[in-house]
Amino acid sequence: MLNIGNKQTRVDGPQKVTGKATYTADIAAPFYHAYVLQSTIACGSITAIDTTAAEAFEGVKAIFTHLNLPERLKNKVDYTDPLAPPGKPFRPFYNNTILYNGQPIALVVAESFEQARYASKLIKVTYEEKKFKGSLAENLKNASADRAPEPAKNRGDFTKAFKNSDYTIIREYRQSRNYHNPMEPHATSVEYNSDGNIVVYDKIQGVASSLKYLKGVFGLGADSVRVKSDFVGGAFGSGLRPQYQLFMATLAALELKHNVQMVMTRAQMFSFGYRPEVIHTMKLGCSKDGTLTALSHKTVGETSTFEDFNETIVDWSGLLYKCDNVNLEYELTPVQSYTPLDMRAPGGVSGVYALECAIDELAHEAGIDPLEFRRKNYVDYDQNENKPFTSKELKACYARCEEVFNWNNRKSLAKIDPHLLLGYGMATGSWEALQQPASVALSMNEMGTFTIKCATADIGTGTYTVMSQIAADKLGVSLDKIKFKLGDTAFPDSPIEGGSWTVSSVGSAVAAICEKFQYRIFDVWKRNNPEYQAVAFEAISFQDAKLKYGSKTFAFTEIMQQASKDELSIAHSEAPADGQDTHSGYAHCCVMVEVTVDKELGIIKVPRLVNVSAAGKIINPKTAENQLLGSMIWGLGMALREEGMVDSRYGRVMNANFAEYHIAVNADIHDIHTEFVEEHDDKVNPLGAKGVGELGIVGLAAAISNAIFDATGKRLRKLPMLLDDVLEV
Fold first, then answer.
1. Sign of CA dihedral 444, 449, 452, 453
2. Residue 49 DSSP SS3
3. Which of 273, 277, 488, 288 is CA-nearest to residue 373?
4. Less CB within 10 Å around the terminal CB: N or C of the chain?
């Protein structure tokens, strides 16, 4: 009865495909509906706001602005959440100051969404506008390392080593803003109970984040608010921090003493967090034989004027390759926009893009095959931290990817339209393998069904399924005997679902509590069977919901009938083991791509993608492969499609829709192949598992960029790479 390591269909799949899965906007209750009016300027203040006509419109129940925000909320200073960066979090309706274009300035609550939306158009707003400078390029002079965390410590003498290198490059790479845009828009549904308590259904990657925010802002006690989120229709980091719809819906519900729901429109989804625009300056040097001798990576990123958002970007350049002379610099520039937000593989996908493009350029300068150059500079320990890795099977990834892609014979395989140019490229990818503290609760009923509860989330990654697999194997029962419940602040605490750490964190806690239950049932069995008092736990096995000792079997249900009610329920908290920080944990991959470029039209296509990953123990290969595929497709979109365009005059996102903000579609997706190599890791966490949700996107954009150069002889050093860039002379 092995579940771990086998492909398992999602246990929540039937609910999703039949429409029975309840997302935040699906909550059935007699709701009032809320709609936000947003600022049309990016900098300045509101001098007048007239809501008279809107208040008189049919169905309107209330309108909130900075003029009538309850004083108790204006006096509150704690608007933070667990992932709030340094600075002062945005406070809706706090005053008349405009900090960014799209800022909420009025909330209309009505009997229907349509009434609320129409009434918002009747509100008359007068502004005093100030000059706007919102682009990164316009504010580079304000870049400062003081607002950013210090990167990994520099080592060696970069300046001297760079000067003495046989081959050197100095290159600049740029990335545009990217927006998360999950399938499910952000939404909050608040049920107001007769006792004044509220139940909040929120689109969030961790209900604890919303709970902390609500308690801090509204002064709610732990017994007066409960936050739930059974299903999340994708998030990719957009749900890590509570967004303004949570404040709006809760404000309206508490003031009106009525159920309130707010669902963001697709355009409003572009009004908060995003992957920030960044500028990289790379300086690399190597010897004649390709040994990396000097590496410098400087990045300037953007943040808002009120918070200092930061990512770990440049550290990846000190980590992936052996180099004794490394200089890392990271600066932040404030812009008049909302605060950026972690987005799938935050920091890593940006830093590795610049690094892997630069590595490819240096390899070309030295006349060395890109794969061999990377093998030449392979490193088997973390130079940033001077620690060994918990495990690293990147060499095996290189070898298998080389074989599957047929890298060494790539040019001889070309059978292609004479109007198309063919190119091949590769890159290395890596992502952190972290474990966070997590708590779970377990109980067994009289039918032998186990219920495991944890406040974690499932953002479409397969958390329900993987946790059920772990529990089933550890308990020795069939999968249908496990009911895993999540997304409720009434459940034991859990880290936010993000960073690809849920399996290692919550999964380790699930495994530990199942082992704890084994000891519990063993003790009950011995207590009620005196003839087995001398039996050691090691002599026992658990299979088919039974305790086995020699040739004898004892059903769990029979044993637990003899136990007290308290013995049927246990709780457990799991934290990283002592001494775990003596090693560095990372997952690794090799990605290879094939591109075609139309000679006349400049159209870029990617007919073939191959990713081979080393990510420790793969709990469910089916969901893991799906995570890699989705991540790779997103990397393709990042490379060739996605570009948030901001009007430099008004700070307005010009393409806040799917017609103009282009994401990868079916026509872009051709032959994609993923594999895992064997990787045993007994140090990273008790399961030996590493997350894969981020891994597939890291390095993908660089591989495509390198392939475009191979096809055209032209280096494109900004994302996205468009046909206009190819055709430019």
1. negative
2. strand
3. 288
4. C
Helix (H, G, I), strand (E, B) or coil at 83: coil
pTM over 0.70: yes
CA distance 258 to 32: 7
- Closest residue by Cα to residue 230 from 512, 483, 4, 444: 483
Identity of the amino acid at 182? P
Q: In a 3-state reduction of DSSP, which class is residue 191?
A: strand
Indicate the burial class of 538 (C-beta count within 10 angstroms; 0-12, 13-18, 19 or more). exposed
* Local structure of 168: helix, strand or coil: strand
pLDDT tens-digit map of 4-47: 999 999 999 999 999 999 999 999 999 999 999 999 999 999 99
Q: 338: which 2 tokens?
A: 């909302």
If 0-12 CB within 10 Å is exposed, 13-18 middle and 19+ buried, where does residue 552 land? exposed
- The 10s digit of each residue's pLDDT in 182-232 is 999 999 999 999 999 999 999 999 999 999 999 999 999 889 999 999 999
Tracing tokens 């009525």 back to the chain, one arrives at 258
Query: DSSP label at 489?
Result: T
Q: Which amino acid is at 121?
A: K
What does 621-680 look like in DSSP terms, one character per residue? Answer: HHHHHHHHHHHHHHHHHHHHT--B-B-TTT--BTT-STTTS----GGG--EEEEEE----
- 117 exposure class (CB count in 10 Å sphere: 0-12, 13-18, 19+): middle
Domains, the chain, in order of start with CATH, read 24-131+182-265 (3.90.1170.50), 278-434+581-727 (3.30.365.10), 436-575 (3.30.365.10)
Which residues neighbour 2 within 8 Å (Cβ) at sequence distance 6 or greater? 473
DSSP 3-state assignment of 285?
strand
- What gap in Å lies between CA 80 and CA 88, rounded to an integer? 8
- b/e map of 671-691 (b: 16 or more CB within 10 Å)? ebbbbbbebebebbbbbbbbb
Q: What angle do CA 97, 98, 104 make, to 5 degrees?
A: 110
Asked whether 154 and 327 are in contact (CB, 8 A), the reply is yes
